[in-house]
Amino acid sequence: MAMKKIFICFTFGLTISTYAQVGIGTNTPHNSSQLEVSASTKGILFPRLTPAQRANIASPATGLYVWDTNTKSLWYFNGVVWVNTVSEGVYGDVKSGFQLVDHSGWILLNGRALNTLTASQQALAVSLGFTTNIPNASTAYLVQNGSGMGAVSGGNTVTLTQSNLPNVSFTGNAANAGNHSHTTDPAAFNSVIAGAHDHWVDAPPTGTSTNGWHSHGSNANGGNGAGLQFQDGNLTPTSVDYNDVGIEDNTCYTLALQIYGDGNHNHSVDIPGFWSGSNGNHSHSIDVPSTPSSAVSDHSHSVSVSSGGAAIPFNIAPKSLSVNMFVYLGL
Questions:
Q1: 53 and 31: one domain?
Q2: For the chain, how many structural domains are there in total?
Q3: For labeling, which of 2, 114, 307, 330 is most exposed (least CB within 10 Å)?
Q4: 329 in helix, strand or coil?
Q5: How far apart (Å, rounded) are the C-alpha atoms in residues 203 and 311?
Q6: Containing domain of residue 232, as a range?
Q7: Structure confidence by residue, pLDDT tens digits, 14-35
Q8: Residue 104, by phi and psi: left (phi above 0), alpha (psi -120 to 50) or beta?
Q9: CA–CA distances in Å: residue 259 to residues 110, 219, 221, 241, 256
Q10: Pairing state of beta strands 285-286 and 216-219?
Q11: pLDDT by residue (tens digit) across 97-136?
């Protein structure tokens, strides 16, 4: 009885026109439609498949629709890939969102290994140029920077060098920049070789060294010069010592004697001062005393003004909203 009711309902609800158009709930389907379903309280129920069942449809027709029981959304085949009508994502699309994990075929760009994805997602990731890992978009901005697809480069901080500073002049006043003097104290130095010249020499008196035996002249009792003259080494007079002076009646005249053997002794010698001969090339040590310079005219001093900086990098990232980035790789 139930089957009969269904058949009767279908029979009365289905209208086939002469042009082979099918109208459900209407007797006049639109001319551009092969099938028109009209209802005010019911809808169309598409085949309900899991992602695996959908992927196993052999040679799906372009425009084929199915309901994905995993994503809870309607998918259609665009002739190349399956497209989720909720996200309308195409493989390789990138979006931002507040979602914390993968969802509906959108994969979080957190740098994880490709082998953590499904086989179909891995194949699509490789086709997009990813090799070992998916890109890590943390603290990165999406931009076409000319590097490899998915590569993260650059940084969010910069350190300025002197050439990056504005072209300005730092000014300052030097202390005592007007008329003033300087104390100069050259270091002691040796003069250059001065050439041959003389020096005044006046040695102090000095005693001679011991100079041996010798004699001194003596005129005993102030005689008239007649007397014995001893020869060096003679202790007694001989005939030659008389020197035409005779001895008569055993009487001796006063003799002028030379005394021998006076013993070792010194003499004081005082050589008078004199100019030395040419003393040869030599130098003299010179130490010029310190002295204030004379006042000079106005002049400048080199002044160094510190910028006070410490070369600390600063963040150039603009104010931003924190979101997660996803790439669409399907299920």
A1: no
A2: 3
A3: 2
A4: coil
A5: 75
A6: 210-267
A7: 444 445 789 899 989 888 888 8
A8: left
A9: 131, 10, 14, 14, 10
A10: unpaired
A11: 999 999 878 999 999 999 999 998 999 999 998 989 999 9
